[in-house]
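During the reporting period the student researcher (J.K.) took over the structure-prediction task from the postdoctoral fellow and processed the backlog of single-chain submissions. One of the processed entries is reproduced below for the supervisory committee.
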Amino acid sequence: MNGWIFIGSMVGYLLLIFIYFGIKDPATLERRSKLSQEEGDALHLTILGILFTVMFLIPPFDYRFGWSQLPDFLAWVGLVLLIISYLIIFFVMRENSYASKGLRIHEGQKVIDSGPYSIIRHPMYAGFSLMCISIPLTLGSLLAFIPALLFPLILAPRIKREEAMLMRELEGYKEYKEQVQYRMLPGIW
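J.K. obtained the following structure tokens:
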């Protein structure tokens, strides 16, 4: 049952994203669909894609063979966290139409310091990381936490490279970085 709940939530979320941005801001969807051209960035995205795939492959086998089990109530906790992660990502995309998969500055791009960006500098990564942690809970698989917990470790060097690029190329980012101190977790990092 957990798998169907997860699939339903993911399909609903993706439909919301495509319908909302398809009507309100199609350029956001276009930018999000383009891959990065930077070699190091492509490697990070490939590794993240593999981890994400493995994270989805583990739970059905885990369930089938009974390798690990989580209490049923954690699936509901996971679903709540998953919905929160969807909302974070949605609000990030709505606030910052320049948010894209690639490490690049777009023509006319400005520093965004409102909405979730007023709390942390990389709310998209925070939302995605929360999503990755909530998926194993929702699907009831302790083993799926292995790839899920690797996400922040893979994201950390990418975030540092992205910040170095933003400091060099995006006017006002240095001041923003001084104003908003934390990257992904308020009070921690």
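The committee noted the following: DSSP finds seven helices and no strands in the chain.
J.K. will present the remaining backlog at the next meeting.
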